[in-house]
Amino acid sequence: MKDKEFVTWESIRVKGKLRFFFVNGLLLYGLPMCIITAYSNKLFENGFTLKAVLGHVTIWSMAGLMFGVVMWYITERRYKKEVTFRENSKQ
To answer: Any stretches that span the bilayer, and where are they (predicted)?
Structure first.
């Protein structure tokens, strides 16, 4: 992990998991994917129905949350390895 990534992750983790899940999962992944797939799959070609919207939004919201959770734990694991490495290299 590079120094810039390390410092950035330290500031992100202070803000908490839930904020990360919401911002990085829902807003930065789930929402764009929801919009992109709605247009690329022509989801509303046969009309703009509430059922289609709710189904699509629900799926991509859950996918966004899953993405956020997975990314949190992957990055947290990398961060902890780096902390251990830096502590051992100081000795």
So the answer is: 20-40, 52-74
Please say whether the beta carbons of 30 and 67 come within 8 A. yes
pTM of this prediction?
Answer: 0.84
Going from the first residue of the chain to its last (91 residues), give the mean pLDDT of each consecutive group of 10, the final group possibly shorter.
94 96 96 89 74 88 97 97 92 74
Cα distance between residue 73 and residue 83, in whole Å: 15
Query: C-alpha distances in angstroms, 50 versus 12, 19, 38, 60, 85?
Result: 36, 28, 13, 15, 52
Output the six-digit token pair for 67: 């993405």
Q: How many CB atoms lie within 10 A of CB 60?
A: 22
pLDDT at 43: 67
Cβ–Cβ under 8 Å, residues 66 and 20: no
Neighbours of 66 (CB within 10 A): 14
Closest CA to 25 of 78, 75, 77: 75
